[in-house]
Structure formats: C-alpha cells, structure tokens
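Illustration: SPRY domain-containing protein.
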Amino acid sequence: MADPAPHPLANPSSYSDNERYFISSGKQISFQPIPTSIYRLVQTTESIKTKGTLWQLNPSSSDDPSTTRNTFDVVSNLPLFAARYDNPLVSGNDSKSIYWEFEITSLGYSGTPAGLAFGFVVKDAGSEAVASDSNGSLRPYGQAAAPKSLSGPSLLWNSVDGGVYDNGTKVPDSEFQAKVGDIVGLGVIFRFDPSIPMIPTRDVNDNPNAKAGKFSKSLDSKGNKTTRVAEVKDLVPVPTRVFVTINGEEKRIEGDVARTFVAGATDVFPVLMVSGPGVGGKVKIGEAVNFSGEGGLADAQLAAQGNNAHAGHKKSRFSKVFKIPGGGGWFGGVGMGSGGG
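Result:
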C-alpha cells in the first residue's frame, strides 16, 4: 500500500539552558518507553559509571513466533541538533556535528528474522507517542522491510544489509556491513555557507543564578551568559555531510543525502528501530561514544566541560554580530544589513 500524504514537520523548539547543555554534550539523553515486554532499555552499573549516555538494550530470551513480525521505533527526549541554536547560520560557527553509536551484542535468534536500524529522525507535527499503527503498539514487520520511522522522516543505518536509508530509500553505494561485537556510528555535519546571509537572531539569557551542580556545571563560568536563538520562520537549510563509522573507521557517504529534512532547519533526534526478537546492544551518546572524529568523543568531552563554543564546531570568520542601524536590536550577519530578509 502506498504511503499516505506526508505530514508537516514539527517546528523546532526552544530549550532551557540546562536542556541546551544536555543537547550539546549528549548527557542524560533518554528514550521513550519501548511498547513491548520483549525489550527493555535499561541502565546498568556500566551506564552509571559512564560519562555521557549509555543505555543497554535487553531482549527477553523468548523467540516466540508471535514476536517475529513486529517492529518498534523509539525516539529520544531531546534532539542532538536544535535548529534554532545550532544552525551554523545562527551560531556563526563553521560547522556543527551530531553523532551517536550502537554496539551490537545480538542480532536475533537462529532462523528468526530480526534486524536493527538506528540513526536520526525529524518528527512529524504532533508526533510525541511511540510509533504505532491502528492495530496496536507495534507495527507489522513487513512495513519495515526498508527501515523508516513512523515518527517522521528518518536517516538510518540498517543491520540487514549495511545500507543507509534516507527516509526509507537506500542511499546508492551505501554498504557498511557490521556484525555482533561491532560498534556502528552515524553522524551528520552541518556546514556554514558564507554565500547564504546570516539568519537574524536575538539573545536569550542563560541562567545567571544557577548553583554549581550536576545540572548547572555546564554554565560557562567565564561570562558567557547568553545564547543566540533564531525564529522558526527565519531558518534556512545549510550544506550537510553524512558519515558512518564501523569500529572507529569513518566511511564517507558521497552525494546529496537527507538534504530535504536533515538540513539545519529542523530539530534532529536519535531514533532506535528494532524488528523481531533477540536484538541487543548498547546505545552510546556523548562521552560514551568511542569514535574521536567530528561529532565523536573529542567534541563530547569539550561540550561536557561547558565549552559549547568549541564542541562539534569552530568559530567562523563570518560570526561577528552587527547592530542594526537605528537601534533595532541585534542580529548575526556577514555584513551590515545582511540576513534581514
């Protein structure tokens, strides 16, 4: 059956200073409850001792045939890319990288169809519930033959064939096979484009009265008290690059991938999709990741120190902020008058 007409995408949200820290650092990211007792996302002793976010995906020992034709996907509570703040034409940075990994410990039972897909999703408007269909909380396995989130447009690595799927369509020449024991990562780099006018911004205050503690230690103690934010209507796409890692080795994907939705004008969330029973592994975000390239461990460590100006990106030479003539406020610009419409 053909897909129904696409839903409008959810508008990018605004976030508190604490939420912005968790988004940037990848700390304390959680996921929706999994809608089946066959699976649980849990914290373990390793999780508690790990900086960043680590969830253990535990399947039950059952290979009951009634579970083999079910698929679920769950989305994180916070995005890893918050468009109103992280778009390079807002922040003035050369790039912004997002990245997370899955360490595979099981890929199903012998003779029982099962598969893993994970990556990023842009939510449809009103998509707050766990993906479901009219028949219950899990959708038929056949609907996920080509992995595609029901929460919105998705960019996913698929364990069945090692392919990267751009909203259900396999990206040509994407064959990045992995097996049990491997760590697979998926990342997107959003690039600053000096040929595009800077997006108008205003400043929002970070919490100036927050006391030192696990929620407020992200605040910059050197006086960085404000954050640039753009209005939804002013956001525009920027160039992106998508990459996969297998056990720390980066695999570049050539061509124009996911530019229609993962392009800097929408919030981008981690999403985990499982088909069938017996899939297990570890979700790794922020300092829990192994890869040290763009968007990986090195960036996460910087972000965890509150150094958001250098985490996942570096300052662009076009990042100067100019005052609008006549005292009309502040906006980011390449030059006087640029980005005003």
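Reading the tokens back as a structure: The chain is about 10% helix and 30% strand.
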